[in-house]
Design a protein that fits this description.
With about 170 residues, the chain is of the alpha/beta class. About 45% of the residues lie in helices and about 15% in strands. It has 7 helices and 6 strands. Helix 1 packs across helix 6, helix 2 packs parallel to helix 3 and helix 6 runs antiparallel to helix 7.
Length: about 170
């Protein structure tokens, strides 16, 4: 599996790298400290696309939504098709218990975070090709299940652990 992580926070990047490498040695991991550098790479002719892209929301230069929209626009203009990899938005704008899945949303409902940061937005997460919004801090189980595509199991595991601690 090839995974790209885009985050301006070195600690978050290091933590996610540690979790992923601890989970599997079968992963090709690329870390980007700048969404602009990641975008430049993804648009280059030499780019090898990931299976999964995890991006932060608030970053200097362009935010996560703008970054995702530019990726989507690139593939639509180049191929006339959707982005060929999964996209996860990783943010501290959600509470620690929240995992927001685009599959759970009504298609006509604009993305809550997007409306919060961009008044007048009408796009849904589905239209933005965002598979999920996952809150920081990211624990090991959420990272593992993110890679496997099973966020419900991750949330359940975290809640079980909290009950055991209490």
């Amino acid at each position: 599996m090839k995974i790209f992580i885009v985050d301006d926070d070195n600690i978050s990047l290091d933590l996610m790298e540690l979790y992923i490498k601890g989970y599997t040695s079968n992963c090709d991991l690329s870390l980007f400290y700048s969404p602009l550098r990641a975008l430049e790479y993804l648009k280059s002719p030499a780019a090898v696309y990931p299976d999964l892209l995890i991006t932060n929301l608030q970053m200097p230069g362009i935010n996560g939504f703008e970054f995702i929209e530019q990726i989507n626009d690139f593939f639509i203009m180049r191929d006339g098709s959707a982005t060929p990899f999964r996209i996860i938005l990783h943010t501290s704008y959600l509470g620690p218990e929240s995992i927001c899945l685009s599959a759970d949303r009504i298609a006509e409902t604009p993305c809550f975070l997007r409306r919060l940061l961009t008044p007048g937005n009408k796009k849904t997460c589905k239209e933005l090709h965002i598979e999920a919004c996952v809150p920081k801090p990211l624990c090991y189980y959420k990272m593992v299940y993110l890679c496997e595509g099973n966020l419900f199991a991750a949330n359940k595991k975290v809640k079980q652990e909290k009950k055991q601690v209490r």
